[in-house]
Amino acid sequence: REAESFKEQGNAYYAKKDYNEAYNYYTKAIDTCPNNASYYGNRAATLMMLGRFREALGDAQQSVRLDDSFVRGHLREGKCHLSLGNAMAASRCFQRVLELDHKNSQAQQELKNASTVLEYEKIAEVDFEKRDFRKVVFCMDRALEFAPACHRFKILKAECLALLGRYPEAQSVA
């Protein structure tokens, strides 16, 4: 009962977009009742809103460890993987959602997004070998639209900007 009360308070703060307070209450719910998948799922959503994707990934993974049929947990895990630039792992999560709910339109869209990121990665790899650094920068910009927290993509973009002599931009990205 106490944990549910904490969760409801967290939900109220989340609705008001006060994600730091929501995080605190979801944490209290987890501390009170550590085996509830939805508490981890809610905290993962809050961490995602705060841009803390690595931490959110851990909570999302814990939510699906506790309940493998928790669709929102798999969705959040996939979105975290994608934001961090791991499109293959993201694809696996979204495919799991579609196994549980084959009509889930969010998972269908996110699966397309993950495929898009993989495609830009492949193109960038080929263009880097060809020393077409402008095109690599273009591909990394597109990939970063789906994977804003991916350090690997940012570093590759910065490297290519430097190779193009665009040092202030490279420094800014790095």
CA gyration radius, whole angstroms: 19 Å
Report helical residue fraction.
over 70%
- Beta-strand content estimate: under 5%
Secondary-structure class? mainly alpha
What's the number of extended β-strand segments? 0
End-to-end Cα distance: 47 Å
Task: Please state the second-level CATH architecture of one domain.
Answer: Alpha Horseshoe
Q: Total number of helical segments?
A: 10
Order of helices and strands: HHHHHHHHHH
Mean pLDDT: 97
Shape: elongated
List keywords for this structure.
mainly alpha; 174 residues; 10 helices; elongated; Serine Threonine Protein Phosphatase 5, Tetratricopeptide repeat
How would you sum up this structure in a few lines?
The protein is mainly alpha-helical and 174 residues long. It contains 10 helices and no strands. Keywords: TPR repeat.
